[in-house]
Amino acid sequence: MRKITGIISFLLLFSFSFSANAAEANMDAQLKKKSKRATDNGLRFLRDQQAENGSWSNSVGITALALRAFLQSRRQYNEDDGPFIKRPVEFILSHVKEDGSISESINNRNYNTAVAITALQATGNPDYKTIIENGQKFITGLQLTEQDGYQSEHKFFGGIGYGGDERPDLSNAYMAVEALKETSLDKNDPVWEKALVFISRSQNNSETNDLDWAKNDGGFAYMPGFSPHGDAVSYGSMTHAGLVSLLFAGVDKNDPRVEAVYGWIKNNYTLDENPGAKHNQGIFYYYNAFAKSMAAFGENEITDSNGITHNWRNDLSRKLLTLQGKDGSWVNNDSPRWWEGNKHLVTAWGVISLNHVIK
Amino acid sequence: MNHYLILEKINWFICFAIILVASLLFSSTLPSDALFASASTLTSEALFIMLISYLLLPAAKTPGSLLANSLSSIAILGFIYLFTGTTEIPVNIFIQVCITIFFLSTLLWSLNQFAELVFPDKKNNRSALFLLVVIITASPVWLAPLVDSYQPDNSVINFIVSVTPVTHISVASEYDYLRSEWLYQNTPFGSLPFVYPDLTSIIFYYLLFATSLQIILWRLKRPIHTLKISKTVKT
Fold first, then answer.
1. Distance from B213 to chain A by nearest Cα, in Å?
2. Average pLDDT over chain A, rounded to whole?
3. For residue A158, which phi and psi values (nearest 5 degrees)?
4. Which of A240, A306, B37, B141 has the most CB atoms less than 10 A away?
5. What residue of A is the nearest CA neighbor of B176?
6. What tens digit of pLDDT does each residue of B131-157 get?
7. Which residue in the set B37, B151, B176 is minimally distant from A107, CB to CB?
């Protein structure tokens, strides 16, 4: 009897360690260790830079991203850990408006509200439920639909913009979709289906895009028919944002849109630049969207068009480790566009990206 | 009543009517359905009315005419919104825009008076000032290549955004104009960190500069014989 118990215990222990090793094996063990240390260093930088009121850069959006970096890190910080978590939450809450938005200014209201409700959700505190729901309503209210005079044939139908005018874009749509997914908006809400119309119309895939502008490389532009890098060219950050948006909006991996965008990623696989973008503009946005899309897609490895197989976690980890400053921060030294000259923002993205890598 | 004064008033009203017609024509070219944010329409109209009023109205020579010229933009904007049935604007935003263009107009006319006093022989003072205002208004566009090349500090970006009149009117309209479709495609400002100035500061600075100019103008216009009398009394 004792022998059988011993054998069973041994088998159980072996199976646990096997499954643990299998989880560890999704990336190189040494790189994983270094990535964990890098997230700690990044969080330490953010902690040192935190203002008295708990904010970073006096911005709701940046504060929410930094807060999310802490909450979703391997250390799993929470509000009980101290003022360095509590104060940014209070800062965010102090900017809740009557219309449900959470923003310190009239610009970036969608971005700010989206990342704010994602961060509040990550606290796990049920006290914020109403604020999160109101934030969801604000974001879904920004979507351009028939009620705003946009018929389903219009190129902007289903899109979501900054919140300051009616021009939507894929970046804002992606942030909104991610926030609505993270805060568990009802899957049957019509916002998803309408968002998919806009997302599909932003893709360079004539098979599934009913607008004339689309080419056929499978990647995504900034909005239907336009990219800031010229014409309606597909580029890395928007392509990965598009993939995240498709998957979060409930599209299956075998859908032609997802297959097309994955094909673009394979054909343009690189972490040395933001493929398709000028002068490395938005490269940390690219890394962040890359991490989220690859994690959401669920494959550890990707084989590029040259037949080379890449472990995306190892690759992203290596790249971010080389770019991290001695003080633990990250910043885009090539271009300040899209706020990537701001160390608080970019470090938060860096940590969030590595959080996805080491998960 | 002095014939000259009557003619001046008639002239003023004729110019006002021309500006009104031009503004109505301009408004008719703007998309008026839901595909164009009402705030952007209001911003475009307010800017157009203000600039064309400055260009066409007779120069303000007295405090009364300064007030009339400054109020004319509000009158035309109000007419368009009351009688043309364009998209609804919340009253508070409409009032904000009216206040902004009133003070902006007052400053422009004060600058015009100052230029005419300091450069009385120059006939193109108003055109020169108009051109300067247009250049400053369009600065986010023509500065785009320089900003892309030299990547200036955030404080420089904020300064450029803060001084242009279109920012001031947009703030009053609560319109994020730098991220509108055309501007986002043609200038990097919408993608850079900037902060719009708040409306209170905008109005304060307009008021400060306009008042300062009027005080300087009053001092410069004081007749010379007044100074001689003062000297006589002292001796």
1. 32
2. 92
3. 85, -5
4. A240
5. A164
6. 999 999 999 999 988 887 787 888 899
7. B176
**Are the C-beta atoms of residues B109 and B66 closer than 8 Å to each other?**
yes
CA–CA separation, A62 vs A71, rounded Å?
Answer: 14
Supply the pLDDT for residue A12. Answer: 55
B110 pLDDT higher than 50: yes
What CA–CA distance (Å, rounded) separates B17 from B11? Answer: 10
Confidence of residue A292 (pLDDT cuts 50, 70, 90): very high
Residue of A104, A108, A156, A337 to mutate for B, most B C-beta atoms under 10 A: A337
Using alpha carbons only, what angle is made at residue B95 by residues B93 and B99, rounded to the nearest 5 degrees? Answer: 120
Measured CA to CA, the distance from residue A332 to residue A48 in angstroms comes to 20
For residue B208, the model assigns a pLDDT of 94
DSSP reduced 3-state for A223: strand
Please report how many Cα atoms fall inside a 13 Å half-sphere around the Cα of residue A253, on the Cβ side: 7
Work out the pLDDT band at A231, boundaries 50, 70, 90: confident
Q: Which residues contact A322 (CB under 8 A, 6 or more apart)?
A: none
The CA distance from A263 to A268, in Å, is 9
Instruction: Output DSSP code: residue A203.
Output: B
CA A275 to the chain's CA centroid: 18
CA distance A351 to A341: 16
Residues in A touching B145 (Cβ below 8 Å): none
At A195 the pLDDT is: 97
CA A333 from chain center: how many Å? 21
Residue B58 has pLDDT above 80, yes or no: yes
Between the CA of residue A348 and those of A19, A41, A356, B81, what are the distances in Å?
A: 31, 11, 13, 46
Distance, in Å, from the CA atom of B110 to the CA atom of B112, rounded to the nearest integer, reads 5
Residue B86: pLDDT band (50, 70, 90) is: low
pLDDT digits (tens, 9 = 90+) for A97-108: 999 999 998 778
- Reduce the DSSP state of residue A102 to 3 states and report it: strand
Total beta-carbon pairs less than 8 A apart between chain A and chain B: 58
Give the whole-angstrom CA distance, residue B99 versus residue B26.
22
User: How many Å apart are CA A235 and CA A221, to the nearest integer?
Assistant: 7
The pTM (predicted TM-score) of the whole model is 0.83
Radius of gyration of chain A (CA): 21
How far is A160 from A199, CA to CA, in rounded Å?
A: 10
In this predicted structure, what is the pLDDT of residue B121? 79
Enter the tokens of residue B19: 């500006």
